[in-house]
Amino acid sequence: MRTRKCRGFTLIELLVVIAIIAVLIALLLPAVQSAREAARRAQCTNNLKQLGIAMHNYLTGINAFPMTATVAFAYTGYSASWGTWSAQSLLLGYLEGQPIYNSCNFGWTVWWGNGLQINKTAMNTVIMTFICPSDGLSPDPASAACFQWTGHLNNYIASLGTTTDPGLNDSTGVFGRINSYGIQAVTDGTSNTIAFSEGLVSDNGTWNGNPQFQRWRDGISDPGGSPTKVLDANSNMTGVMNDLLLCNQLFQARQFPAYNDKGYRWAVGANGHTSFNTIVPPSSTQYPWGGCRFNCNDCGFAYGEYENATSNHPGGCNCMLADGSVRFIKSSIAMKTWWALGTRAGGEVISADSY
Hints:
Elements: H1 11-62, E1 72-75, E2 78-80, H2 87-90, H3 98-103, H4 114-118, H5 120-123, E3 156-159, E4 194-198, H6 211-214, E5 219-221, H7 237-252, E6 275-276, E7 291-293, E8 306-307, E9 316-321, E10 326-330, H8 335-342
Parallel strand pairs: 3-6, 5-7
Antiparallel strand pairs: 1-2, 3-4, 4-9, 7-8, 9-10
């Protein structure tokens, strides 16, 4: 009578199989992550295109682009020009957001005063068109709980151009605070002028030991000194560059604000919340911070002199130009080219291959 011998894997064979599986996983995971990021970046591009369509529909109806901050009552008889409504909120009616738009009382402030309670529900509403899916700190569109989100709600910011004074009612960009410009003001050409870009939301200045994860989400508040507040950074480039070096020193020393309000709410018309300036190139590795505000102890950095375009997309940011088209601007773009793209009437000649 014959007996059958049952033969199993030897230890060496088992180790070889495990090694092969490990190699396959190592090869597969980056490809999966890359495919997911490509999908997220495509969704981000689509969001900016929707904003571009809304912006031009608004232009058709009003004959001007929306302003980045309005004037509204904070208390009975007292009007304010800060903590008021953003360009994003004014575009809601053109973004299939008519019910939310109708619930906004634009006669009152949105961030403070009596208007805070009047407009609280609208302000805290999550609008997915304003969310970049690549930002892990923004609401997750796959979760129903995101509509009760308590974190920061805005990833798309309107360009003030090369203006570093957040208190001015004028700017060199497509948008202005308590001021609006028509398409006739964009003499550099709408295809050569940035209107919107991305901005990663804040993580409230915490440091978890991973500087790459934190890099563009931390801001600096009260670095000391006198900031270079100008309508156009080109008028005092030396002062602006000195400011940026000081901001770098404070960032490297991990001196962050008590709280960090980058991208806090889409409704609030404030530099940092919903607008930025084209000074620091997008997702810059040379200036690896989200914003920098001078002369304000224990403040966040809304209304900062320097608010940067940032994203989690490798190598740069999606930007929407004033003609409504979306381009991916690399972090390696020359600073002067970035400044030129930010101005609406600077008279610069920009070649398509420069960015």
